[in-house]
Amino acid sequence: MSIKEDLTSILDTLPKTVTLVAVSKTKPISDLQQAYDEGQRIFGENRVQEMTEKWEKMPKDIEWHMIGHLQRNKVKYMAEYVSLVHGVDSPRLLKEINKQAEKCDRTISCLLQVHIAEEDTKFGFDEKELVDLVENEQFKGYTHVKIKGLMGMATFTDDMNQVRREFKSLKSLFDKLKNKYKDFSILSMGMSGDYTIAIEEGSTMVRIGSSIFGSRN
Ligand SMILES: *Cc1c(COP(=O)(O)O)cnc(C)c1O
Predict the structure, then answer these.
(1) For a substitution probing ligand 1, which of 20, 67, 163 has the most ligand atoms within 8 Å of its CB?
(2) Given 16, 48, 128, 155, which residue has the most CB atoms within 10 angstroms?
(3) For the chain, how many structural domains are there in total?
(4) pLDDT lower than 70: segments of the chain
(5) pTM listed for this prediction
(6) Where in the sequence is the domain holding 39, given as residue range(s)?
(7) Ligand 1 pocket test target in 14, 20, 23 with most atoms within 8 Å of CB
């Protein structure tokens, strides 16, 4: 199927409350342009340099989301344009985003990445670290970042009960924090292989790549 058909059929199944991030990493501009022509305006990338090259070439009404693991020394290259950073996984990274956003006179929206997978290769905070961070006085002084919610990745497994369990735990943590922090509105969970489960478990934003653009090499 074409990008157009895949994108349309996914959009048809998404509830209106769920936002689609089209994950275009490794894909050429011509592929992004096809999705853009269908009305897609949110793209996710996992490398700063690649995202910046695409930002320079593509129309300026696109929202660029950084979804991958981010090194602090790369933040400055995207600070002037990035819309949402999904994978904030350390206080030091948040501090750097705040610093670079201030230099550009912007406020950058961020999601805190939570470690939900039972496998230990994924980055992110655990619940205690998360609470420690949002209650931290220094963090409250970061006026150029806005924490909009949480992001998580489930274990890469065929066991869909496990995936569901992990999404459930992220949703319950999200609900707990949402009661306390008024800016919390985004729960980013779900990719090509598991987004229907993620939506059933309360996701508000799905990050879908291969089901739209085809598999990556
Ligand atoms: C690549 C990637 C996705 C999209 O993965 P697909 O399986 O191709 O949909 C989603 N989230 C993150 C963090 C990714 O790195």
Answers:
(1) 67
(2) 48
(3) 1
(4) 120-122
(5) 0.96
(6) 3-213
(7) 23
